[in-house]
Amino acid sequence: MLQVREFNQLGDLDSLRPAWQRLLSGTPAHSFFQTLEWLEIAWGNYRLPQKLRVVLVERDGQPVGIVPFCVRVEQRRMGRLRVLTYPLDDWGPFFGPIGPEPQVALQAAIEHVAATPRDWDFIDLRWVDESAPEFMVAGEALRSAGYSFITRPRMEVRICRMTEGWEAYVASRSRNWRREMRRHHELLEKAGGPVNLVRYRPAAGSGDEAAHLEVYDVCERIAAHSWQAAAESQSTLCSPRVRDVLRRLHVAAARLGMLDVNILTVGDRPVAYNYNYFAAGRILGLRCGFDQTAGLENCGKLLLYKMLEDAAVRGDVEYNFGPGRQPYKDRFATEMRRAYTFRHYARYSLRSQLMNLKERMASRIYSEEALIERQLVS
Hints:
Aminopeptidase; alpha+beta; twelve-stranded mixed sheet
């Protein structure tokens, strides 16, 4: 027999910490974004009003799953709307229930939402991995709750699988790719000196905050000389908009053993970085960049090459590039997966129904392929 409890205050979640940690370890393909530490730090970074709706699912008094829902206000052309969703806010590509039975947890959580007073204008589960156990259940749960829904791909994610080892991976690449990697290495050594990879992946509980932040500071200095520093999004490591929260998340991830930072040095000078989170052999790319003032071409690509080689030797399973279709990702990736959105518009919300009407009209004007292209988030 399943029981459901809902938590609406961030401070109240501390009582769930032991259960949260235990359930997380059994969650298929879990990530740092599903930790309680992530939620506690990132929650205050959202600028518009929001409400926490964390659903705890128990079986005979024992926790079997946690579904971190929230209701967030989003600004649209027609005004502000309340969205029931996951609290990821596009920091990563995938999210879902926490626990070894995500299908059971999601079904129970959707039933709970349907049975409680509506405080949202539409439901939007935006980061459902097409390979996740709960992928098929998401639609079934909405349908069984009496909710009509639309589902479409929202993100495309390139993945580099390394389960067969480094030699097999390199053999799967083209001859030109292999020749290009060797040439990049030779040219960098000729231009600047010895080329080395520095990898920082502290075990859980090891190191101290000063040591963790020293590594972050190196990456931040590189980021300040990268093209991303001047980008309109202002989302790189040195950007004032996100710098403080990224530093706090950095320390938390390091303490949990879920941090993976890679720095390429040329002649002992740090020239490129690849900043990731890590869990159970899976690396999730968050930020990367190179120092434009160093005058060293292709150092970012060579860093990626050496980082993947080292990861394969360590026995890592995969590297997730994050959303986006940048050409360099296709040259390194072995597969592509999609994150889907499952969307339901509340029947008695005028603004929500206007959005629903707009979506139906778009479906008549554009082909399914064109709609997917228009809605993909990079």
